[in-house]
Amino acid sequence: MAEIKLERIKKTYDNGPTVVHDFNLEIHDGEFIVLVGPSGCGKSTTLRMIAGLEDITGGDFYIDEKRMNDVEPKNRDIAMVFQNYALYPHMSVYDNMAFSLKLRKTPKPEIKERVEKAAEILGLTDFLDRKPKALSGGQRQRVALGRAIVREANVFLMDEPLSNLDAKLRVQMRAEITKLHKRLETTTIYVTHDQTEALTMASRIVVMNQGDIMQVGSPKEVYDFP
Ligand code: ADP
Ligand code: ADP
Predict the structure, then answer these.
(1) Distance between CA 48 and CA 56 in Å, rounded?
(2) Ligand index nearest the alpha carbon of residue 101
(3) pLDDT tens digit sequence for 45-72
(4) Alpha-carbon torsion 56, 29, 212, 46, what sign?
(5) Which of its termini does the chain have fewer beta carbons within 10 Å around, N or C?
(6) How do residues 195-219 score in pLDDT, each as one tens digit?
(7) Ligand 1 pocket member 44 (CB < 6 A)
């Protein structure tokens, strides 16, 4: 369960411009929010503030009524999937997925159980001993998803997770992420510049431009198709 509330959220980089301008957004439990907008409009910055990878320079951010602005990233109930997968090249698939749990001192048997369950969901059971370089692009992307799933976090943040895949694989992974969301019902914010992804995956679409929210609505409302 996780409701996210952003109140007059703002980001000004040190000695730089303000790239997120005091916007408000409420995300309900289990929603799949797709965040769209032109390159440089502040989508990644917004995700990174929610994850705690960037300081919030104004406004307040809550998960389930708890103010999160100053909570350390590792203490946020959030898992993030990046565009470039950010897998550790020298670690096996198993260890890539186990890593964040080891950091959090999760007991070994529980780590094993969670990694094996995630691997089963993602079709990675036969690949646990491989290194990332011995995997296809789609398999690597699955490992990146697996690292998020094992956390059993209540919030998923995904920053253009499919943009490095070829068109065919993108379609396939899009369906898999939708299926995963149906199964786990984790509150998700998904950044993309791909209109088809927004249309097919979103429960609501948030349109950003120059650090502001322009529009929030269902795919039908935002794209106004018949
Ligand atoms: P998007 O994800 O929508 O492409 P970003 O959030 O990455 O946009 O970037 C928003 C703006 O913030 C851009 O103008 C970008 O150049 C600027 N920006 C991003 N990261 C930094 C940083 N570390 N320091 C200064 N400016 C940054
Ligand atoms: P350690 O070596 O740290 O004592 P374990 O005895 O739990 O850890 O496991 C040894 C190593 O085997 C782990 O670090 C992990 O990389 C790998 N491993 C454990 N279970 C599996 C599994 N089901 N599939 C693939 N590799 C596994």
Answers:
(1) 9
(2) 2
(3) 999 999 999 999 999 999 999 999 999 9
(4) positive
(5) C
(6) 899 999 999 999 999 999 999 999 9
(7) yes
Ligand 1 centroid to 182 CA: how many Å?
A: 32
Rounded to two decimals, the pTM is 0.90
Cα–Cα distance measured from residue 71 to residue 89, given in angstroms and rounded to the nearest whole number: 29
Check if 41 has its Cβ closer than 6 Å to any atom of ligand 1. yes
Nearest-atom number in ligand 1 for the CA of 47 is 6
Can you read off the two tokens belonging to residue 61?
């951010």
Say if residues 162 and 82 touch (Cβ distance below 8 Å).
Answer: no
Q: In sequence order, what E strands does the chain have?
A: 4-12, 18-27, 32-36, 58-63, 66-67, 78-81, 155-159, 187-191, 204-209, 212-217
Helix (H) or strand (E) holding 183: helix 167-184
pLDDT for 165 equals 86
Rounded Cα distance, 178 and 107, in Å: 30
Other CB atoms closer than 10 Å to residue 225's CB: what's the count?
A: 8
Dihedral angle sign, alpha carbons of residues 181, 184, 187, 191: negative
Residue whose Cα lies nearest atom 23 of ligand 1: it is 13
Q: Which ligand 2 atom lies nearest to the CA of residue 95? A: 16
57, two tokens? 């320079």
Amino acid at 197: E
- For residue 213, the SS3 value is strand
What is the rounded distance in angstroms from the CA atom of residue 190 to the CA atom of residue 201? 9
